[in-house]
Write a structure and sequence with these properties.
heterodimer, A: 646 residues, alpha+beta, five-stranded antiparallel sheet, globular, B: 257 residues, five-stranded mixed sheet, 39% helix
């Protein structure tokens, strides 16, 4: 079996990145022009990488399934982006950001990568401001910060509740500039369905033009995956409808290992499910927990009266409310990390204290903050979020507490990458949410935007040169070669097979069934019996899907059903891998909560002796169980301890 | 709730389109407009029909993908929302709802309710950016920006690029879209440096792409899901005029030397 080598540079953690950059190979400008790079995805990671690589002089081809790069789902990130600027003078530093991220990830991330992330965080803010990103400012004209979960300093930069949008539009503008300059070519409305390897190295992709159905071949000297997370495996999530795992999964099938697939983040503050026709969930930013207080009634009698609408939330006196986060975690209160807050909400609802028509919701109350800061101050901080909530629920958070419940939001797992962000396939890189590297078993708020942009702007442009320096004599590839022909043929065959399965059930129906299995058995709480059952259910589902899916329309035209079918087929396979991963990890850590492994107070119980490793899975064929490889995690800087937010 | 839907069906860009009538029933008032269309499509798929193609992605009002012209209004009857944030409680039980694609020369129909909006990308590529490279920029707090200006820049930058302004305009003008980007960048010191060339390039590209001129009806502002103000069009016109006059002055000075 292949041994995983993360290729972490020698030396003290704070000097590794500088040392790496000093020692890595460079490609001279004349040679860059002869080298082609494919980037898949145009979210924060993909757009920033494509723009930066184009600016360096490489020939870049960038692919997205959306009609324009500006619509990638990074656009929906609300709260903010972390950086260790220490502008508020509250004691922040690169080390503290590093420490908080490792601790927040429950000690399951790689120290060297996380330290580098903290180090480059400040450069991101500088660049974004230079691009014209309108971050929030003080009356002095200088930038302001706010607090986020899992930290005791204010290090989050934000642009009202639309930080992701503003950062993505910044990256999109940089990308547009390179497209105009001719260094980057855009392929929109394309699904990337396979990777092409030549002599073991990534040399291209097979894409489907979503408008015409044409199967296209594209060659390059290196391929960069930036296709985001796989939260849609749960059907209901805060991801966009089109978010999918397919490019990363096709890489997995070609030999790229998939790490910690079961590490998924359930975000505590989402708008609860309204009914069976629900198609997606909407997040309410974590920043709301700065001013909102989370509670449920302390007495069952009040719970029942609320459900019968005999009383309003405001009728319940202070003494009869259970502010359970403040009660259980006095030090961090409502600002505990996401996994802790989500589980605490589930605990209260499971115990019967949930509110709302379904009993599967808790209150997020702004009454105190409105009293303390005034209506206008709250409006300037959260106006657009309150408005969004009111549109969906038809209730104003100014008048009555919001109702929220946890929902799938982010996936920490992803393709295994080394320090250079290269997967186990030579020349194939994974950046942003689609890799596994920086967030361990739980991601802190405002760290996804930081990681996406760090990878794309400041890490990959250096590390990819170290590989491409050895490729300057490699001529451009002929897409008529047998490797491309075989890959294109297998994509065509697969599409035909799905199209002709001749069943009666729609793709969405299968997707909902998959989501129910995953949420029930591999969601916020997992156990041995449930995971074993899920594996059997998923195996049946896969079988039923291959025989029973119904696809209207043809393959050579715009056909959203065939697009969805390819994605769902991959999600079903991924679901099986997630369950296997959750099953092998006989401990609780971060977002992965195994009910068998908890403290007497119901907190996650890690097992560092046996599980302080990254679990990387290797594909062994369609019908064989994947093989597990371990990357043992070394903690030289930070001492492992039980994560406490009390 | 039950509805009769009159939906524009068109196989591809060259095919002739037509309005087709469908009935949907048992819709929850809490369903979003797209969840109602999902229900229609599920019925069409299982009964051997041809599902309706429409653009959608984030379904939370920020990506700008959705683009339905509902009862004669882009994004439908509710103010300040995208189609995906429209809920069926905004309609009455038994209503007939007309659903069409964005109509504009610059937005050809791809299929049914989906149009090609790459013309908007072209306009951004023409100059909707600050020409900074990755690396080599000053510390973020080196240049203070007055809060009022920064806030005004944000208000303009909040445009989601959906194209509702174009669909709303009787001239199919994209001036609110361009005005928003020109304003966002011209209001900030970082974007000020290139303001004059930017506005000229973007306006030239707008003309090339086949967008019309401002109709001065303010329909764009009224139907913009993000409430972008027409004051941004005024600012763009001012920037454009200033740039042209300045260029003229430069030419005169050069010729006199």
């Amino acid at each position: 079996m292949t041994r995983l080598n993360a290729r972490i540079p020698e030396g003290p953690v704070a000097e590794k990145w500088t040392a790496y950059k000093s020692g890595s190979k460079l490609v001279n400008p004349n040679n860059k022009r002869k080298l082609d790079i494919i980037v898949i995805g145009t979210g924060l990671a993909g757009a920033s990488a494509a723009a930066s690589l184009g600016q360096l002089g490489y020939n870049v081809k960038v692919f997205c399934y959306q009609d324009t790069p500006r619509r990638a789902h990074s656009i929906a990130a609300q709260g903010g982006i972390n950086a260790a600027k220490n502008y508020p003078n509250d004691g922040d530093s690169a080390y503290r950001l590093f420490y908080d991220t490792i601790k927040g990830g429950d000690y399951r991330a790689r120290e060297a990568n996380v330290y580098r992330l903290a180090q480059v965080s400040n450069q991101i803010i500088d660049l974004c401001v230079a691009q014209g990103v309108p971050f929030a400012r003080e009356y002095s004209g200088l930038l302001t910060n706010r607090s986020f979960g899992g930290a005791q300093v204010s290090r989050t930069f934000y642009a009202r509740g639309q930080t992701g949008q503003q950062l993505l539009l910044g990256a999109y503008s940089a990308l547009s500039r390179q497209i105009a300059a001719g260094t980057v070519k855009l392929y929109n409305r394309r699904d990337v369905l396979d990777m092409v390897l030549v002599d073991g190295k990534a040399r291209g992709i097979i894409a489907r033009n979503l408008v015409t159905g044409e199967i296209e071949r594209h060659a390059a000297h290196a391929v960069v995956l930036a296709n985001g997370g796989y939260g849609n495996v749960f059907f209901l999530s805060t991801n966009a409808m089109g978010s999918n795992v397919t490019p990363a999964w096709s890489a997995y099938r070609k030999g790229a290992m998939f790490a910690n697939p079961s590490f998924t983040q359930i975000h505590p503050t989402c708008i609860p499910v309204h009914g069976d026709a629900q198609s997606k969930l909407t997040l309410m930013s974590e920043s709301l927990r700065n001013d909102g207080r989370i509670w449920v009634p302390a007495n069952m009698a009040d719970v029942e009266k609320l459900r019968k609408k005999q009383i309003k939330p405001s009728d319940i006196p202070e003494a009869n409310r259970d502010y359970y986060l403040e009660r259980r975690y006095p030090a961090f209160g409502n600002l505990v990390p996401r996994d802790v807050a989500s589980r605490a909400a589930k605990e209260r609802c499971d115990a019967g204290y949930g509110v709302g028509a379904t009993g599967v919701a808790v209150f997020l109350d702004f009454a105190d903050a409105i009293k303390r800061k005034g209506h206008d101050a709250i409006d300037s901080l959260y106006g657009n979020l309150f408005q969004m909530y009111e549109q969906i629920v038809a209730e104003s958070p100014y008048d009555t507490p919001m109702m929220i419940y946890p929902a799938v939001h982010y996936t920490m797992g992803g393709l295994w990458v080394d320090y250079e962000l290269m997967t186990t396939i030579q020349g194939l890189y994974a950046i942003g949410e689609c890799n596994f590297s920086d967030h361990g078993a739980n991601r802190l708020g405002a760290s996804a935007l930081m990681q996406g942009l760090a990878d794309g702007y400041f890490v990959l442009p250096y590390t990819i040169g170290n590989y491409l320096a050895n490729e300057i004599h490699t001529p451009r590839f002929d897409t008529a070669s047998s490797e491309f022909t075989i890959a294109a043929q297998s994509v065509t065959d697969r599409l035909k097979q799905i199209k002709n399965s001749g069943g009666k059930e729609s793709v969405d129906s299968f997707h909902r069934r998959l989501g129910k299995i995953m949420w029930e058995y591999c969601g916020m709480a997992r156990n041995d019996a449930g995971l074993t059952k899920a594996l059997a259910l998923l195996s049946d589902l896969r079988q039923e899907f291959s025989l029973g899916v119904k696809i209207p329309g043809g393959l050579d035209e715009y056909n959203p059903e065939i697009e969805k079918a390819c994605r769902v087929a991959d999600f079903i396979e991924l679901g099986e891998l997630m369950v296997r991963d959750a099953h092998q990890r006989r401990e609780s850590c971060g977002g992965h909560f195994r009910e068998e492994y908890q403290t007497s107070e119901g907190e996650a119980l890690r097992n560092d002796d046996e599980f302080a490793f990254v679990g990387a899975w290797e594909y062994q064929g369609r019908d064989a169980a994947a093989g597990l490889h371990r990357e043992e995690l070394q903690f030289n800087e930070i001492k492992l301890s039980q994560r406490s937010y009390k | 709730m039950n509805f009769t839907l009159k939906i524009w069906r068109q196989k591809n860009v060259t095919a002739k389109g037509e309005m087709v009538s469908y009935d949907v029933s048992g819709i929850s008032p809490d369903s979003s407009f797209f969840e109602m269309l999902d229900t229609l499509n599920q019925n069409l798929i299982t009964t051997g029909g041809d599902p309706v193609a429409f653009d959608h992605d984030c379904r939370e009002g920020i990506c700008g993908t959705c683009s339905l012209f509902i009862n004669g209004r882009p994004h439908g009857p509710a103010k300040g929302v995208t189609t995906c944030q429209l809920h069926m409680r905004a309609f009455k039980d038994g209503d007939t709802i007309f659903i069409e694609p964005w109509r504009a020369k610059a937005f050809p129909v791809i299929r049914d309710l989906i149009v090609d909006r790459s013309a908007l990308d072209k306009i951004i590529q023409a100059g909707g950016y600050v020409s900074v490279n990755t690396g080599g920029v000053p510390d973020a707090n080196t240049i203070p920006v007055p809060k009022e200006k920064s806030d005004a820049a944000f208000d303009a930058a909040t445009c989601i690029g959906c194209g509702a302004c174009v669909a709303a305009c009787s001239n199919a003008a994209a001036m609110l879209f361009i005005g928003a980007k020109v304003s966002h960048l011209a209001l900030l010191p970082q974007g000020r440096v290139e303001a004059a060339t930017r506005v000229q390039k973007m306006v030239a590209c707008m003309d090339e792409q086949g967008f019309g001129n401002c109709s001065n009806t303010y329909a764009c502002e009224f139907d913009c899901p993000k409430g972008i103000s027409v004051a941004n069009i005024a600012r763009m016109n001012r920037e454009f005029l200033g740039a042209k006059l300045f260029a003229e002055k430069e030419r005169v000075i050069k010729e006199s030397l």
